[in-house]
Amino acid sequence: MISAVSSASSAIYASSLYANAVRTPDASQQSGSGRNTLGQEQVSQEDQRRIDELKTTDRKVRTHEAAHMAAGGSLVTSGASFEYETGPDGQRYAVAGEVGIDTSKGRTPEETLARAQQIRAAALAPADPSGQDRAVAAAAAQMAAAAQAEIAQANVAPDEEAGEAEPVTPPGARPQSDDANALDQVIARSLSPSSAGRAVNIYA
Questions:
Q1: What does the pLDDT read at residue 44?
Q2: Number of domains present in the structure of the chain
Q3: Does residue 22 belong to any structural domain of this protein?
């Protein structure tokens, strides 16, 4: 199970997929002394069945948490921690577990997007994600969507500003520049009454 830890170090805890998988009373709890009218052989078979269940659960829980850690990489804030149950043989077996992962944003939208994708991958890494794992994955997907929107907005804004600053010239119109204005003045002087009788040279 993924335990999401934000930048404020708050944590979310939930029961693991396997937490209640093997919480059935063993033979000693059912009969008080651990022996019933069926005799020693029947009790031993029940104990062995219980031990086998605990071993299977222990293996699944450890594999589950190892998958989280492998996919979480540098975002994992703590190693796997486990909840144990003691079997009829006196051995402790893992029946629940969790891995802490940092779910805070990055310094840039691009970094936030990369972190969100890794968080989601870590949450869904096990073959059988728990409800808590799926909740963390959903939150990471929302983080990724927000980062993508921010990146898209940043890429569009400069183009829009450039479009607004660019002057629009009507079709067929001559763009005005300092040289064009100077040329117009020369033409105007050549056509004015005061220029009569004088030759004016216009260089294009």
A1: 85
A2: 1
A3: yes
